[in-house]
Amino acid sequence: MKPEKRIRALISGRVQGVFYRASTRDEAKRLGLTGWVRNLRDGRVELVAEGSEDAIKRLISWCWDGPPYAKVDEVLVQDEEPTGEFEDFEIRYTV
């Protein structure tokens, strides 16, 4: 069954080297979401998440705070068409 909602988000600020990816993965899993999170070469973090609309809203809200040492300046969110392609929420590594 396809998830209700899918987003792609770009998070900027002090979000690398502060456990942002691992904390995002843990929060997404806690919320029952699937997808991935990764660092970008420009210092931002990118994530794709699928799941219920309510869980997605909660993740976006969490992204504004992040883990304790993060300082988030901006969270840009774009809706995408849900695909149901993910089985879990994982950390991906920048190529």
Tell me what you see in this structure:
The protein has 95 residues and is an alpha+beta fold. It has one domain (5-91): 2-Layer Sandwich (Alpha-Beta Plaits), CATH 3.30.70.100. It has two helices and five strands. It has helices spanning 20-30, 53-65; strands at 5-14, 34-39, 45-51, 71-80, 89-91. It has a five-stranded mixed β-sheet with strand order 4-1-3-2-5, covered by helices on one side. β2 and β3 form a beta hairpin. The longest helix has 13 residues, at 53-65. The N and C termini lie far apart (31 Å). The model has no long low-confidence stretch (mean pLDDT 96).
SSE layout and pairings?
Blueprint (H helix, E strand, L loop, with lengths): L4 E10 L5 H11 L3 E6 L5 E7 L1 H13 L5 E10 L8 E3 L4
Parallel strand pairs: 2-5
Antiparallel strand pairs: 1-3, 1-4, 2-3
Key descriptive features of the protein:
95 residues, alpha+beta, Alpha-Beta Plaits, five-stranded mixed sheet, 25% helix
Pick out the low-confidence regions. none
Strand order of the largest sheet: 4-1-3-2-5
Strand runs, count = 5
* SSE pattern: EHEEHEE
CATH C-level: Alpha Beta
Based on helices, strands and strand pairing, what is the structural class?
alpha+beta
Beta fraction: 35-45%
Give the CATH architecture.
2-Layer Sandwich
Output the CATH topology.
Alpha-Beta Plaits
What is the first-to-last residue Cα distance?
A: 31 Å
Shape: globular
In DSSP terms (H or I, runs of 4 or more residues), the helix count works out at 2
What value does the average pLDDT take? 96
Number of domains: 1
Largest sheet: 5 strands, mixed
Percent helix, as a range, is 25-40%
> What is the alpha-carbon Rg in Å?
12 Å
